[in-house]
Specification:
Distance between the termini: 115 Å
CATH topology of the largest domain: Beta-Lactamase
Structural class: alpha+beta
Number of helices: 14
CATH class of the largest domain: Alpha Beta
Shape: rod-shaped
Helix content: 40-55%
Strand content: 15-25%
Number of strands: 15
Length: about 475
Amino acid sequence: MKSAKIYTLYQDLLDKLKSDSKFFESLRKSGFFVSDLKSRRSIASGVMEVLGHKSKFLTMNHFVELVHPEDREAYINSWSRLEAGFDDVFFAEYRLRDGWGNYHWLQTQGVVLERTSQGEISFFAGVDRNITLRKDTENLILTRYSDLEDRYYLSESLRVAGSVVASTLDREANLQVILEQAQGLIPCDFIRLSSIEGYTLHILGQKGKVEGPETRDVSPVWKVVSDKVPRIIDDLGAIIPPHPGDEKRIFGSWMGVPLVFKGNVVGALEFWNCGTRSFHGDQIWPAMAFADSVAIGISNASRFEQSTEEGLRDGLTGLSSRAKFQKTAENIFQTCLQGEEDLGVIMTDLDHFKRVNDQNGHPMGDTVLQTFAQICRQVLRKSDMIFRFGGEEFIILLPGSQLDAALNIAERIRKLFETSVIEGLCEPVTASFGVASLMSQSVTTLGALVAKADQALYQAKNTGRNRVCKAN
């Protein structure tokens, strides 16, 4: 029930209003209002007057129609509690439509001064306040807080994505991680990652819902690479001629970001969307931040790949090592076996190499090994592979070469090495060769084929050395 103290206060106030019109007008302009619901008369506040609701008495139904739809239910609930007698004090913050159709935030605080014998409200008074400025300020703060929160989560996503990319050393795995993380940060229909070497772009990886366009000399990505700055094209349809490789104009917008590592452009990230104006300026900074991580990741992966490759290469001769043979030879064998293609194998060993080291010293022995490696490179095709298998032992794989061809290659190497002149060496050095091929042997494993060539090498050693023998 209403407080007797509040009722007495308002009665005194009404008596004052009757005797002092200037005081009443001052209060009214400050937002004070009085409603006599029994006689359907009211004195509107100055706030309502400014909003164009001065002269007429507004019924509750009419007034509620002016309240914003999103605030209407809460307002009705508060007023219903007042009408039902649960409360005598009213408080509401809501948006009200003015006489010209615009909404303003209001705060209304009021009190029931008198009820009928049936408990209905007969006299109600209170204060209206325009709190639009306060609400706008609150919304601005919330918006900025939301922006900061979004930026925090985006920064955190970039940190996680960047750390994942930078820590992945496997090149192929790294490419997949980059594409997945980039598409998560910058939603798009197609994405492409390219590296640059000189004046050539090499596509490292791409991913998308639709097939992407080709990268040509006139592609806009070259502008990104040359200027080292990102670029957005809002409407690819406005480009004449169309975007290279997209003559059907599947894509509507494009964004390109350079990959810069230690001041040098190492590649580019390109994003496509089918719709126009799909990319905006706010996406540039996270894309650039991610691109920095990508550049580091690619560089790390390249250095790791280079160091791994160096570990698979013999430091003295520059030939592939036995570790490289163990890593790659099985795939080569299976490819030839499944494709019903021949594979020649040559096992070779330098004759009396220990004597060369003992009589001439190890530096001369190193020179002999390097000379043999150089002769092999001169004879072999680009598709052929040679590995240093042990100290003075080598193995050669000849994809697509039949037994006769493999025998001829071995013989050419033997003759060239026998007749080679090595300064400081007292006597010529020779080599023995054992040759086998996949189609000439009944074998189904790489180990069995290598064993056949090794047996032929053993035969060459036992029959006088400096010769080529074929497997039985």
